[in-house]
Each structure stands twice: as structure tokens, then as C-alpha cells.
């Protein structure tokens, strides 16, 4: 897998990406619904020409993502932000087709200008229905959440400003949690959908996971489409590239301090920050749980951060300098979150084509680090 590419590097597998996209296309057709790429999870625009053969457009969280989606992806460009900047809004209107607002005040301030240019506008709803387990950082329905408008805050006088309603409450979840949320949303806001063109179920749908219940998702989509006559949108990010990416790294050093340790040339803090933020233990090819195989190591990065630890893994053989390790499911929320703390170089980005050949799409160097500073 690694070839002669210098580590660390991200590798996206075109064949696996297509497999995911084919399933998403099936959902679009059988729903029916319209699926957008959530760029906040994956913004490798070199593969946008491939993705747009299957999906109708992209969704953005602000000006730069919206511009990237408009220029590189095409199709529909949707944007949601918790609060828009006045000094960016006019430019944003040149990229966005749909704009979703977070609060009644933002809707009143910006919607008339957007609609005057033929843009469609919506309001993000907080259905106050938490289905998260263990990932509070990703729960938009937590008490005190800044994301979305609750029923108490909703005002019927807003309806003339609305083309659709949007809710996003899931994170790596199955369609049973969507069903739970959709039932609450429908109970609170369903009567308003008769006046809408669309409803957006947001992201967090793990549609391409092997055990995901696609048939339940289709039933939910059909119910909203047939009952209210609305177009249903989904905004998956992870599902588009689930299990389609890798992060290839090399062992720099092994040492011992009460247990075997290995220092890699990749960093959790810089190259896979979700490992520390969620937190979670990323899958590693040909490894086991601690103690499962003969040799257990704690893997860490080369930065000065004491907590730059990826996790504990076991191996059939002792690790040694120069060994290459392959972390799996590393396309989503990785490239979009990398940083150069400690002067760490950014990993190169490569693509493995369907025929097995590998192409380095981009490499990074000192100037990429320096230009982020003053």
C-alpha cells in the first residue's frame, strides 16, 4: 500500500469511494431525496468531479467552503452558519443557492436580501431530542445549545421568509435515531411543512456502514415526501468516505517506560485531532487490542505535547524503526482538521485509482507552515 511515498500521507481509495457513492445514489433514487456532500467532513476537491456524478451538490459552513463548493463541485451549494458576518454576506450570496439561518433574528436580517436574488432560505430547528451516547461535543440538542431554533423561539410570522426547515442532530448514527428525532420534529413542526418546499435532515447518517438500516431511512424519507410534498435533503459527510481513506505513518523510535512505546512520524494532535477531541481509538491495520497479540505498544506522535497519544495496540512482532503502519478510516475529519502545531509538516494527500496505481495529489512543506504565521 505505501509504495515509495514519504510518510506520513493520507491515501484515499477511489474504488471504496465509488462503492459508497453508488449506495448513496441508490438512496437518492429510491427515496426520493437529494444528497449533498458535507464539506466540513471531507474537502478533497480533486475527487469532486467523481463525487458530483452521484450527489447533487455540497453543503458549507461558511464563506470559504461555499466558494470551494461552488467553484469545484458545482450543482447545488447550501450553506448553514450559526451567525453570518455582514462583511461576508454579499460575497456569500454569489456562491450559495440555499442559505439556512440559525435564529429568527438572523433570518429576519438576511433572508429578504437572499430571496430578492432568488436564493432559497430556511431555518435550522432544534427539536430538543438528544440521541447521542458518549459524544456530548457533537450533540446540538444538549441543554444550552447555540445551534438551532426551539419551538419556544419559533414564530409563525417567520413563515413567509421560509422555503424549508432544517435539523441536524446525529453523529455516526443509524436510522433508528433519525426516526426518533424525525417523530419529535414532526410533532412540533410538521404542521408548517405543508407550506415548505423542502426539509433537510442534516448529516450524521452512517448510511454506508455495513449494519446501517437503509430501508428504515427510505421509509422516513418517503413519509415526509408523500405526506407534506416536500423535497428531502440529506447532508452526509462521513458516509461519503467511510472506510475509504488511510493515514500511512512510519515508526521513528521505540522505547520503554513501564510499557513499550513507539514514536511515529504522525501526530494525533496535528493530523487526526478527533482522536483527542471525541476521543476515540482509530483502527490500525494488522493490529489488535492491548494484550491480544504478543507485543503491545503505546503509539504517540513526535510533538512536545505529552498527551499526543494515539492509543495502545498489539502486534505479532516487535515494532522497529522504519516500520510502516496504516491507520484506517482516515478520510473523514482528518485532512480538514490538520494543523502545524510544533512546526509539524502536513501529511501529503494521495489517491489510489481503481486500477491500483497511486498518485500524490499534493505535498506540503515549510512554506505551508510559515504562511499560517506572521
UniProtKB/TrEMBL annotation:
Binding residue positions for substrate: 238, 274
GO biological process: lysine biosynthetic process via diaminopimelate; nor-spermidine biosynthetic process; spermidine biosynthetic process
GO MF term set: diaminopimelate decarboxylase activity
Keyword Lyase in annotation: yes
Coiled coil, from the record: none
Entries under Pfam families matching the protein: Orn_DAP_Arg_deC
Domain Orn/DAP/Arg decarboxylase 2 C-terminal: 172-330
Cofactor: pyridoxal 5'-phosphate
Entry EC no(s): 4.1.1.96
NCBIfam families: nspC (TIGR01047)
Name of the protein this chain belongs to: Carboxynorspermidine decarboxylase
Organism of provenance: Fusicatenibacter faecihominis
